[in-house]
Amino acid sequence: MGPGRPGAKEGNRVGGGSLRPGAREAGQGELGVGLGRSREGCSITWPEGLFYPPGTNKLALVDWGDPARPFLFPSEWQHVTMFGFFALSGWVDLASWVWLARRRVGLERAALALAFHVLALLLLTHSQGKDPVENRVHSLLLLPTFLTALVLTVELWAPDQPQLWVAKTWLLLVQGSWLLQTAFVLYRPPSGQPWRGDSPADLMFLSTFFCWHLALGIGVLATIYGLSALWHRHGSPRAGEKGLGYQRCQLGPLDEELQKLEVEAEQTERGSFGAGLPEI
């Protein structure tokens, strides 16, 4: 039982997992299944374009016709490895939401953390032998990727921490915006002139632009939080009502039964696994 485990009062988890989503959780369940299917679908379709571009077959791993037996297409194989681990994360989400009797939140988090650890590991060598510009943009991408993997790993032992949610969201925003920037830098520079790897100024500005992306992510989060706070205080139809705030829902017969089941499951897990282990 790791720290940060939700207590019995939440009434919707049993023994380290959640009950299969019911009617009140249908929207959340559909969202989780949709996210899992999106990761799975993207990871299956993208390798097809990597290995079978028009007129080319890059599925070969070794050149058996060469006596030295060199490896072939290392970048493509690294990409498909990345996609494969994110596909695994999507399959785990689907299994947790749809096929298992109880949703295993810890297992979903562990699979996603593993995917980001693999991504960080591959980024360490992904730009080997490439020009300095491509090397620099991938090195900068490695920083938020590694920190995201670290945050996801910490969440295994300390779930439901708002600070980790904010950090994870910010890091993912930075990764997304920097990937878009990378596409323009490497393939479609707005100036029409390619970035020069032999220019110290070009390499320095790549780092400068990355810092701007860090600030952009903070700005996006602050804007969303500010607008949400304004709506909650002034724009909501119930804004201004006395005593309005976050209140604990009234427990019904079903919720009371779930609480009893959760207490029993916690007692069973304490006896089976002991304390200090992360929830899976």
Automatic annotation (TrEMBL):
Membrane topology (UniProt): Multi-pass membrane protein
Subcellular location: Membrane
Transmembrane helix listed as a keyword: yes
InterPro entries named among the record's database cross-references: DUF716
Residue ranges of the TM segments: 80-100, 107-125, 137-158, 170-187, 207-231
Keyword terms: Membrane, Transmembrane, Transmembrane helix
Region (Disordered): 1-35
Any single Gene Ontology cellular-component annotation: membrane
PANTHER family xrefs: TRANSMEMBRANE EPIDIDYMAL FAMILY MEMBER 3 (PTHR46441)
Record-stated family: Belongs to the TMEM45 family.
Protein known as: Transmembrane epididymal protein 1
Higher taxonomy: Eukaryota, Metazoa, Chordata, Craniata, Vertebrata
